[in-house]
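Notes from the 1:1 (GR / supervisor)

We went over the backlog. Supervisor wanted to see one worked example end to end before approving the batch request, so GR pasted a single chain during the call. The sequence is below; no edits were made to it. Supervisor asked that the structure be written out right there so they could see what the output format looks like.
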Amino acid sequence: MSIIYRTTLVPSKLELLTEWLPTRTWYQVTGGRPALEKAGGFRLDDPEGEVGIEFMVVADTSGAGATAYHVPLTYRSSPLEEGENALVGTTEHGVLGRRWVYDGTRDPVLVTQLVALIQGDAKAQAQSESHTPDPTVDARPACDRPVVQVRLAAVDGVMGTELQVGLAAGGQFMLRVLRVLEPVADKAGEVGDYGYVTATWRLAADSPPVRGVFALAELR
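Structure output shown during the call:
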């Protein structure tokens, strides 16, 4: 189960993302420096207990209206092999020491657990509470058979990140990680026959939660 430490992080996640987000193809340019607020998210457990996995939502209020970004992140105690292009930054954790923070769509540990979540083999955990499942996260499988990942390729687009997950039995598990989130009034109309993950976030600190699609999946 995820263990959440009440301690310092220097620089903070929001400080790291303020510098990183404008370098992404899916960032909605506002003409100013990002003004980020934490808006929601959830975590997944690494079965090996080594890598922190977080699906973070941040709201950028630097434009005319707030834009909600979905930012999957991993936290490691040492650099990810061949992960230079995925590095968001490094930070000093008050308990765990130096942590390497990565774009999780390029980290095989996060992608493996995201596939497991979609397929019903992993459970979402609360973002800010230890040992606490998050019942607000909903998922539907993309297929009815086991998925064993053997390779990963990721490409960023205007609205999200496309992941091609090669399978041990052949074929591909196609994942679309949505980066710019929009509330969904009718989930069935938005996801069609795809596997999916939906979750909630808040448009403002004092507003009720809204739900949207975080990821879509298809077996090919």
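Supervisor's comment: The chain has a mean pLDDT of 91.
Batch request approved.
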